[in-house]
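Dear colleague,

Following up on yesterday's call, I've attached the two folding results inline so they're easy to grep. Please treat them as preliminary; we haven't cross-checked anything against experimental data yet. The first protein's sequence and structure tokens come first.
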Amino acid sequence: MSIELEYALEHKNDPAVLCCRMEPGEISHHNLEDPAIFPDLIDTGLLNIDGCITIGQALGATLKETSDSLTPLTPAIVDNIQDPDAGEAEDAATEAPAEEAAAPAVAVPAGTAVKIGGGYVRLYIAEGKDISIEFPV
């Protein structure tokens, strides 16, 4: 699943991996996979990020060849690798520090357990018919 630009910028130092098949051209956040799922993919042997460039380096770079989903972006298949820190000094001087909004509190009914770990949210609801829901975060 592709990621949003804000999320990509927050994770600019994480490895860049394609989320879906991509033809040669400019790489944007729409082409990149969520790094939160990488530990599970690496553990199962589905992904190897050795030699992978970062998301910050990939944004605006050019893919040289058609590549499939879950392809780690390496200098061998990417041209025009970006320097993610080039405009950071100017941006820091012009931007005022942003206040982070507190996450809204969620009321959880009795008999409900919520666990967040390993890139997934696991929700277990005892009432009803033992409903269990998992989704990546």
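Below is the second protein, in the same order (sequence, then structure):
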Amino acid sequence: MASNPIVNMFKVKELRKRMFFTLLILAVFRLGSVITVPGIDAKVLLDYFDNLAKENNNAFASYMDFFVGGAFSNFSIFMLGVMPYISMQIIMQLAVIIFPALKRISQEDGGQRKITQYSRIGTIVVCLIQAWGVTVYANSIPNCVVIQNQVMFKMITMVTVTTGSMITVWLGDQITARGIGNGISMMIFAGIVARMPNAIVELVRAVKANEVRLVFVILVFVMFIAIIALVIFEESGQRKIPVNYAKRVVGRKMYGGQSTYIPFKVNPSNVIPLIFASSILTLPLSIISTLANGSNAKPWVGALSRFLNPTGVWYNILLVLLIIFFAYFYTQVTLNPTEIARNIRENGGSIPGVRSDKTEEYLTKILNRLILPGSLFLALIAVIPTVVQHAFGFPQSVAQLMGGTSLIILVGVDLDTMSQVEALLKMHHQDGLTKKGKIRSRSL
């Protein structure tokens, strides 16, 4: 009788501990997402965002809430989430490529630890800038701030929000080290999932009020299922590069002589380009939108805020371009053809039909052919929420969850977590999550 994979997950002590630890950390994260920053009247804040939602004028707040599960509109201590840290990681990775001194540091013993420290210090700076923007935004809401002393209010808010963001990053690190899945991705995953009940309630209200036709809801739901299937299909696709290793005699033993392959995914960078592109746009969008809400806002600030409207054409064009850029950038960092070619040559390997000195060129050509369609696929799905919102009249919060970035992140994180669970089950000699004990991949 075949064993139940769900039961097997709870039989393995290590896996069980990791799962419960992950759930505990996510519960702490959700608790912090509803604790309002000191000095803010929560009732006034709730009425303000409810009115914006009724007027369909909450594009900025809905966008900021996307990765933090409503923590921004709550003005909670975790309102910035992990996005400042991700933004700083991107900046540091670019800086390592641009500045030779940083590249030398990263290649030294313990260099990556130093780069990580620099990223965390930079994250504090980014958090302080965004937290200052939060104070300006709060002051633009009538009767929202209850502390009369503005200097004290700004100091308390900036320290609280910055500390909350760094705690969120630390919680993500704890999941990576002692839980299941990538911690930072799991925090974003939890934020998206937490918004689903409210989005469903809002959609039902819109259908009852005849703001959205039921036939459109059914059509979008079918499209939602089809996109999930396409994302899974694309995520499981691989291009296998065959590699033959020559036999080597070392002492009295013979090594090598086997054939293997290098698996290149159709989308080598997974959901990273989407997260990177969104986080890069978050910083200027939050600052500009905050300044546009200020009492002394300049006309050009308002124009720039409208230009960066998350539901606008120009924002989506920038998002598409950034997704394509980060797909190439991240793949080159993680799958460097030069490093792979050197490792193949040093171990006496060769790719059938490819000269040894042409290995790097061949791998680069294969990667470029994979990255372009993969990045275009990501970009196409990323703009679906805007299309759904404008074509079918869906509320923005619902449209964001019915496609685009949310779907790819949900599916990507889920597949990654399943792979880790699968590995732990196999390590403890248990049946995997699938009948043959492995998550299938397709060869191209």
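For the second protein, one point worth flagging: The two ends are 35 Å apart (CA to CA).

Best wishes,
A.L.
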